[in-house]
Amino acid sequence: MALRSSSSLPPRLIGLLSILLLYLTTTSLAIRVGVVIKPSPNLPVFREAPAFRNGDECGSEDQKHIHVAMTLDANYIRGTMAAVLSILQHSTCPENLSFYFLSAHSEADLFSAIKSTFPYLNFKIYRFDSNLVHGKISKSIRQALDQPLNYARIYLADIIPPNVGRVIYLDSDIVVVDDIAKLWDVDMEDKVVAAPEYCHANFTQYFTDDFWSDPEFSKTFHGRNPCYFNTGVMVMDVDKWRKGEYTQKVEEWMAVQKNKRIYHLGSLPPFLLVLAGNIKAVDHRWNQHGLGGDNFKGKCRNLHPGPISLLHWSGKGKPWLRLDSRKPCNIDHLWKPYDLYRSSKQSLEE
Fold first, then answer.
1. How many angstroms separate the CA atoms of 7 and 17, rounded?
2. What are phi and psi of 76, to 5 degrees?
3. pLDDT per residue of the chain (350 residues) written in tens, 0 to 9
4. Calpha distance 271→228 (Å, rounded)
């Protein structure tokens, strides 16, 4: 910006413009060299992630646009940042990714946090109205499972843009160590949801004796071969979800639960009641779940045998909390390289 001569502008105004120019110059320089701006006193501070660009083989962004949805919460934002970094880092065409974040809190603070950490990320934040689940949530075995945002995935199809036909939903306590395009490309075979299935799990344990002893409820899975699947990693055909009114179907089971306790685990069981035995099974490599231990003590667990594309710290134990407490599990060190959190000690050192 060029300043006019003192003959045409008052000295006081020239002085103010000079200060403004100096401020703009030093501010833009600070952003370029990666100085972290703390977006809110209520949120952690994160380092700026590197820029990830498409290779020549990616072609046009419109040829293959991948849509990813996640929730965004102050208590889990450190996990979300690590998850996003892992997805970008292992993606062949990272610029073809669009992220949709669902939040129940201030969009401005969270937008600033994401934008300052991932300046080149294509994303939007959508407000999740907690009133949608007011009076519908039943107390579960762990308080974290009772938070309204935990139920946002049920309403995902009604929140994201209507022109989005397919989306990958991911929990915040994951890291992806493979190209997410491989998960996106799954042939859903006319199913509404695709996810890894675990048919060796004891399916009956997800529902109470009152459920199984009720002659009407026990017919729910008639004609299906129901298997457990984890709703923290799902490919969703949101067009079919909308047309089939699956949100209402899940809500109906939540209403039943309010009158008669038929399950203990938050938002998972109503998904199972509606969809178990009728999803497209995906390779187990796409959800190495349970790494956070059980829902009570969060004890350390080992990896399941087989190849891995996605690590999932479902359960009570979260890797960032265990690392901060200096009592990490061995598996938590696989999450640490994706942690962008800037501690107060690191800030002072820099």
1. 15
2. -120, 5
3. 443 433 444 444 334 334 333 333 333 333 333 444 445 667 899 999 999 999 888 876 556 899 999 999 988 999 999 999 999 999 999 999 999 999 987 778 899 999 999 999 999 999 999 999 988 887 765 666 678 899 999 999 999 999 999 999 999 999 999 999 999 999 999 999 999 999 998 999 999 999 999 999 989 999 999 999 999 999 999 999 999 999 999 999 999 999 999 998 789 999 999 999 999 999 999 999 999 998 778 789 999 899 999 999 999 999 999 999 999 999 999 999 999 998 755 544 44
4. 10
Measured CA to CA, the distance from residue 46 to residue 249 in angstroms comes to: 40
Given the structure tokens 């294509």, which residue do they identify? Answer: 122
Helix (H) or strand (E) holding 78: helix 77-89
What is the dihedral sign for C-alpha 195, 286, 154, 98?
negative
